[in-house]
Amino acid sequence: MTLFHFGNCFALAYFPYFITYKCSGLSEYNAFWKCVQAGATYLFVQLCKMLFLATFFPTWEGGVGVYDFIGVHYIAVSALVWMFTRYDLPRNFRPPLTLLLGISVYKAFILEAFVHLFSLGSWTALLVRAVMTGVLALSSLSLFVTLVHGN
Predict the structure, then answer these.
(1) Nearest CA to 41 among 49, 52, 30?
(2) I need a labelling partner for 116 at 20 to 30 A (CA). Which of 12, 39, 47, 62 fits?
(3) pTM surpassing 0.85?
(4) Long-range contacts, stretch 135-142, CB < 8 angstroms, 24+ apart
(5) Among 127, 131, 61, which Cα is nearest to 103's?
(6) Which three-class secondary structure string do you get for the chain?
(7) pLDDT, tens only, 73-121
(8) Which of 2, 97, 131 is nearest to 57 (CA)?
(9) What phi and psi, each to the nearest 5 degrees, are found at residue 38?
(10) Average pLDDT over residues 123-149
């Protein structure tokens, strides 16, 4: 569906210009390759956007009315990456951000190792995962609010 939507948007964005270009006298000035270059750039940017969204923001496939706790995690990671890439980030923010990013990237590995190490049951493991995600999200939120409020 996404690829079809992309093709539709691309066609709606560029075919009117292409038809206008071919039917008018613009083609005499050899501007066709600039149109091709603009179209290729648009194609590349949209492809990168689709890959980025599909990679870092997966769709929720749970039931209707069920809260998405996995998405609470991706939003926290996105906020951490955004804060980490700021050029005006205070130096005292860098160590906690690095620690939180490391924990959030390796969260699944850390939690699986924790579950196997302590032989936790499935409900206890689920509770530990929820608590870990909550701690990461609240820590990210507190750093985010402190950074934004401080500017």
Answers:
(1) 49
(2) 62
(3) no
(4) 136/73, 136/76, 136/100, 136/103, 136/104, 136/107, 137/72, 137/73, 137/75, 137/76, 139/96, 139/100, 140/76, 140/77, 140/79, 140/80, 140/100, 141/76, 141/79
(5) 131
(6) CHHHHHHHHHHHHHHHHHHHHHHCHHHHHCCHHHHHHHHHHHHHHHHHHHHHHHHHCCCCCCCCCCCCHHHHHHHHHHHHHHHHCCCCCCHHHHHHHHHHHHHHHCHHHHHHHHHHHHCCCHHHHHHHHHHHHHHHHHHHHHHHHHHHHHC
(7) 777 888 888 888 888 888 888 999 999 999 988 888 898 898 889 998 8
(8) 2
(9) -65, -40
(10) 87
Tokens of 5: 């939507």
* Structure token pair of residue 126: 């689920």
Residue type, 138: L
